[in-house]
Batch of 3 targets.
Target 1
Amino acid sequence: MTGNGKYDAVEIDSAEPLAPRPTSLARRSVVFAIGVVVISLAAVTGTLGWQFVRQHARDDAASQALAAARSFAVTLTSTDQNAIDKNFADVLGGATGDFKDIYGKTAAQLRKMLIDNKVNTTGTVDDAAVKSVNGNDVDVLLSMKQEVTSAAVPQPRTEFVSVSMTMRKVGSTWLAAEVQMAGQPKPQHRGGL
């Protein structure tokens, strides 16, 4: 625009060809390519997000099961002559599956032996680690120390025990489904495996 309010004329050089306008097919190809890129990015983002959520759930399960295993191992390896029935009830309350069945069947005999020999034990967990996570089952390895006294040996003696435990989530609670002390044969499953 010039100072007098009129527009300047623009000269078009006819020697320069105008850029061709994209055809309808070219525009569709570009839109299609952009769509493919957007869908691919959404798929990759969704897959990575799903893997992150799964890994977080596995880590959370491992952490909860490990804490429950540490607590249960202390319960399992600690007995007090003055609270023997509570000790057994606590063990059964923290157990499930085959371990609960086996422990329940042998508890009376074990209880009698502990009372007759005036055995007291105190278990502590020295170290523990998650071996594997498989859905609602978490395998945990524990290294434990157990102080033992009895009528025959009133001076405390220390025993070191390695324990392998399968913790199973039942409802919202982690319970011991399998317990194996080092050197014991692995229990046979009833399923024929």
Target 2
Amino acid sequence: MTVFARSLIGLTLALSVFAVSVTEPDAVTATRVARGGGGNNGNSGGGPYGPGGGSNNGGHDGPGGPHGPGSGNGGGNHGGGGGGKPHHPEPSHRPPPRPYRRALDTLHGAQIADEICPGDAYGCPIAPAGSLSSLPNGLDDWVNQGFYCVDRTADLTDCGGCAALDAKHDCTRITGAKSVSCVSGSCVVDSCLPNFTLDSNSCTAN
């Protein structure tokens, strides 16, 4: 009887050791499932109770599990919102590409005015109306003088040209004019102030 009892106890201990050896990998597996694996492109989700996986290539993090918070930009079903910071493109603060600067360095005066602004805009130097006799010469002169970009076909203060070179390009300076416009690069007087009469696109004092 004693021998039988000892055999039974030994069998019980053996079964316990076998159960532990079987359940340990499952516990590890459960932990791995709960945490969720990182996706190559940030698309892998989390396990039932864990956060979403990470991203190796800068993509969005995967969503969290049913009860876990999402990491990065994706939130879990019952967890908190994503902790990732949304990406917003920022303007570049780098200087103009060297080839472009070298191209401008070969130009002068009006050529630079035509090329220094984007699209069809024209560069005008910053200076009081009628104070300059010519446009800045080289690129360094333009940068030192300062400039702004205008649409010479419609800009009231630089209509048909730069007011810094000739005050006539500033339509708002027309004597006696109340309402003016810039049409195809020419100042047009629409109405005159009291005591002035509209006469051939100008205002004449009464």
Target 3
Amino acid sequence: MVFGIFSCSSFSCQQCPNRCKKSIAFLQSKGHKVILGSLFNNVNDKYRSGSIIQRAQEFNELLEMKCDIYLSAIGGFCANSITPLINYDLITKDMIFVGCSDATTVLVNIVEKTKAKVIYGPALITHFGEWEEYYAQQSYDALIKAIQNPVNEVKEFEYWTQDYKNWDTFTSEKQKHKNSIIFQGEKTISGNLYPINLSSFSTAFNKSIKKIRKNNTILFIEDSNKDIEMVEKLFSFLVSNKLLKNVSGVIFGKYENFDDKGSKKLPHQVFIEITEANKINIKNLVYYIDCGHTHPTNALIFNKKIFIDFENKKIWQ
């Protein structure tokens, strides 16, 4: 398969050249061809990969190359700037788009405006540049299964990490945590999955974003480096925009390096407080799966039916 790498937000190679090379070599070792967008090695901007026009041009140029999979290089904070300039007419239903974090704004617009397959999962540098093979391999396996298998099972990995060490060079093993996913609900439910990084999604939301409002939507939410004040603010954003009206269940991803400000409250507890205060009844909750910022990551398919079996503690699409 041919991977086209786009840098829709943060600059990439200059901040971690060794990790970049490793991530590319990892995909190549699996037999894939990797086409780097024109901004992958750009060093001119200080906080982003290029100007708004340059980033949109890079994305559109990659679309013209007809790659099999379009993969975000890394996250950032300003991907929403390019979404009005993407040529969505170039996107065909056989294309696959993958990313997480700030790429959410791009992914959501592709979901809303095209029939392409869109996956919330790994980013090139973040996940495939890992120095410890376990994390990169598990994330890769999850992505390939989501692409190729008729059933995409959401995996509970043996262990996970949110450790920031070993970014551009290896120093020592990352701290490992055993997994313990909590299922709070009854029987089995199903609905169309809408996976988002909530802070990024809040910058993309407008009246044209409609698929999140479908009946029996199951929402996946995750975020990174947020304190509890911001988490409350973002959950309230969902309520104030009536985006939970048709939600039948919520799956929470692990919140990387969450700061509870000494409250000892977790994100799902804040969510419950807000929904109960607003008399919104969402009883089916799962917390916390691996998808997004923690390692390894699962791969979740946008707008595909997802099943949650609360009795047997399984999730699949």
